Amino acid sequence: MSEKTEWLRSPLTENAQRLQPMRELWLKPYYGKKRRVTIQRTEITVGNCDSCDIRVDDPFVSPRHAEFRLEGMGAGYFVEDLSSRNGVFLNGVRVRSAPLPSSGTLRLGRSTLSWGESREGCELLDGGWIVADPSMKEVMESVRRVATTTLPVLLLGETGTGKDVIARMLHHWSSHPEGPFLPVNGALTGGALAESELFGHRKGAFTGAETARQGALRSANGGTLFLDEIADVPLATQVKLLRALESGEVKSLGADRSERSDFRLITATSRNLDRRIRDGEFRNDLYYRIAGCVIHVPPLRERLKDVSAIAEKLSADRGFSLDTEAESRLLQYSWPGNVRELRSCIERAAVMARGMGVSRILPEHLGPLERPVTIKESEDCWIPRTLGEIEREYLAASLERHGWSRTLAARELGIARSTLWAKMKGYGLTGPAIEIRDSE
Question: Residue 163 — very low, low, confident or very high, per pLDDT cuts 50/70/90?
Answer without folding.
Answer: very high
